[in-house]
Design a protein that fits this description.
By secondary structure, the chain is of the alpha/beta class. Helices cover 51% and strands 11% of the residues. It has helices spanning 18-25, 32-42, 47-50, 60-68, 87-103, 115-119, 125-141, 158-169, 174-181, 189-199, 204-209, 224-236, 274-284, 293-299, 307-315, 319-331, 336-361, 365-368, and strands spanning 6-8, 11-13, 28-29, 54-58, 74-78, 107-111, 149-153, 215-220, 243-247. The protein has a seven-stranded mixed sheet, sandwiched between helices. Strands 1-2 form a two-stranded antiparallel ribbon. Strand 1 and strand 2 form a beta hairpin. Helix 8 (158-169) packs across helix 10 (189-199). The longest helix is centred in the C-terminal third of the chain and has 26 residues, at 336-361. Bound molecules: tryptophan. Residues 9, 76-80, 110, 112, 115, 198, 217, 219, 223 line the site of tryptophan.
């Protein structure tokens, strides 16, 4: 990972070449045969699968073999609370919600509230405690089933997690995490240990149930390294290796790479007002349009690099509508201002509903916390 694009859990920078990463990370592309196999159970294919937003996996065929034998899996994903949630964060979670509904399975959602405390110079544990609540509201707002969803907060659940984490930690060397995450001798020892904590929820439900339960982890590709180094360890400890589904990143407004919560202009937060959304898209969203209206009408724009269009591929579920926008922008019939307006309206329609649910979620946290 020394070439132009950087993809680690702490940094995603540059033009991400996803097919190259599949090779580098040693994962499998999600092909049509796998899509068909998933569809047998879900009856429909989520747009994120059809559009290759989820594009890669580990061991999905094994997971479905087990499922077909009646060995149900649980879902696991998470969020390190460190700031406000933006649209990019929601992508794997919305898809996870769909999987929960379609397969009728449990979800374990981790809030590693120590992670960013360890990795970021100025973040305190009081800050991450506050962000745990704020971020949990966004997760709950997506409509997860409270009877089938369990939140793990690392500093709260340390009592059950630590015992498992040390077993993982004992089998991963410093030289492995050094090479995987680019650590050096100045890295604090909490950061070096952290991967062990992120591994635990992938088998903790098996520990609690006293029998092995398959696990499926939907995640952004940047989170894969934690599991690349810990999956074998889980097997050595006597548990199943978790299966994984990888998604690509929602681009930031201004640059390539991913939306980043720490660069305000590149991100649309779930709590943004309609005016803020309009301003950010109009002012910052990188455009694939031409310099003048005349040129645009004549030569057409480039939707493939246009950020407003890219956002619509994450939010507009109707394939036909999306295709028409693509074609019209390419032909020049649709102008950049008009495309941005479609995108702004779509985001604001989504956020209006999300913000209403998010308010209601504030009373529900306790229902989701694992007890
Ligand atoms: N490390 C993730 C983050 O930075 C949070 C996380 C914890 C996670 N467990 C996970 C993400 C499992 C995906 C899958 O937000």
């Amino acid at each position: 990972m020394t070439e132009k694009a950087t993809v680690t859990p702490w940094e995603v920078k540059g033009d991400v070449d996803y097919s190259k990463l599949i090779k580098e990370f040693g994962t499998q592309p999600i092909d049509d045969a796998l899509l068909e196999r998933i569809k047998k159970h879900t009856k429909e294919i989520h747009p994120y699968l059809a559009r290759k937003i989820f594009f890669s996996h580990r061991d999905m065929n094994w997971l479905l073999d087990e499922y077909e034998k009646g060995n149900k899996f649980f879902l696991y994903t998470g969020r390190a609370p460190s700031g406000p949630v933006h649209l990019g964060h929601l992508v794997p979670w919305m898809f996870t919600k769909w999987l929960q509904d379609k397969f009728d399975v449990e979800l374990w959602f981790q809030f590693p509230d120590e992670e960013k405390f360890l990795f970021k110079e100025n973040l305190t544990l009081d800050d991450t405690a506050k962000w745990t609540m704020e971020n949990a509201y966004d997760v709950i707002a997506l409509g997860f089933n409270p009877k089938k969803t369990k939140f793990l907060v690392d500093t709260k659940h340390a009592g059950i997690m630590y015992k498992e984490a040390v077993k993982v930690a004992k089998k991963i060397t410093f030289s492995t995490v050094k090479a995987t995450f680019g650590f050096d001798n100045s890295t604090n020892i909490g950061s070096i240990f952290y991967t062990a904590m992120q591994a635990v929820p992938a088998f903790l439900p098996s520990v609690i149930a006293g029998k092995n339960i398959p696990c499926l982890i939907p995640l952004g590709l940047d989170q894969d390294p934690h599991f690349r180094v810990s999956r074998d360890v889980m097997q050595k400890l006597g548990y199943y290796k978790p299966a994984i589904l990888h998604c690509r990143f929602l681009p930031g407004l201004t640059e390539s790479g991913k939306m980043s919560a720490s660069i305000a202009e590149t991100a649309i937060y779930t709590t943004d007002s309609p005016e803020a959304v309009a301003k950010k898209i109009n002012k910052y969203a990188f455009s694939g349009g031409r310099d003048t209206v005349e040129e645009h009408r004549k030569h057409g724009g480039n939707p493939d690099i246009d950020v407003a269009y890219q956002y619509l591929t994450f939010l507009e579920e109707d394939d036909k509508k999306l295709k028409k926008i693509y074609d019209d922008y390419k032909s020049g019939a649709l102008l950049t201002g008009e495309l941005k307006k479609i995108c702004i309206d779509k985001i604001n329609e989504f956020l209006a509903k999300h913000q209403k649910e998010r308010e209601k979620a504030k009373k529900q946290f306790d229902k989701f916390l694992y007890k």
